[in-house]
Design a protein that fits this description.
Blueprint lengths: L9 E4 L8 H7 L5 E4 L6 H17 L3 E5 L2 H6 L4 E4 L11 E6 L13 E4 L15 H9 L6 E4 L4 H7 L4 E3 L11
Parallel strand pairs: 1-2, 1-8, 2-3, 3-4, 4-5, 5-6, 6-7, 7-8
Length: 181
């Protein structure tokens, strides 16, 4: 994957709450975007079937389809990459590696990654009442990353403009019908 196209700037993240609109959301995303399939709420068989169906749509639209899980699991499922905590993403894996980080301390695993999803930048529905990094802390932590950083958490086209960061990802912020209009 890494040799075929550059790292996407825009990423849609799946979740149980946006499942009903994922097909439409993928069809609205621009060519060259990324899709991270999480869906932890499904059984393994249901999860694999849902990933296969959504990855087919994403790839037909020229998008990257990444699986939340280990690099080995991503390869078995024919995903374009793996997403998760640094400890689950093997260094040197022959797949796109996206790690999650929520602090400078967690950023240490970024040397294993092709990109880091740093969150939450802004308050989110995923973690109501949780402490957000805010734009300043986000920038300070992102500046220390050895890998490209993707902003996550409370992101939508408006907050992305406010943050002025090239790469961002969203669950709700890219799932509603008017989000890319």
């Amino acid at each position: 994957m890494r040799s075929r196209q550059p790292l996407p700037k825009l990423w849609l993240i799946s979740d149980a709450r946006n499942d009903a609109v994922l097909e439409q959301a993928l069809r609205r995303l621009p060519r060259g975007s990324g899709f991270v399939f999480r869906h932890y709420h499904l059984s393994e068989a249901e999860r694999r079937a849902r990933f296969t169906a959504l990855a087919r749509i994403a790839r037909a639209r020229g998008q990257v389809a990444v699986l939340a899980g280990s690099a080995a699991e991503a390869r078995r499922w024919s995903a374009d990459g793996a997403y998760g905590a640094a400890r689950r993403i093997a260094a040197g894996a022959a797949t796109l590696r996206l790690i999650t980080a929520h602090s400078l301390q967690e950023l240490r695993g970024a040397c294993r990654a092709d990109a880091v999803l740093l969150s939450p930048v802004f308050p989110t529905r995923s973690h109501p009442g949780g402490k957000a990094l805010g734009p300043l802390r986000f920038r300070l932590i992102a500046a220390r990353s050895p890998a490209p950083v993707i902003a996550l958490g409370g992101m939508n086209p408006n907050t992305a403009k406010r943050l002025k960061h090239a790469r961002w990802a969203a669950i709700d912020g890219l799932s509603a019908a008017n989000r890319l209009a």
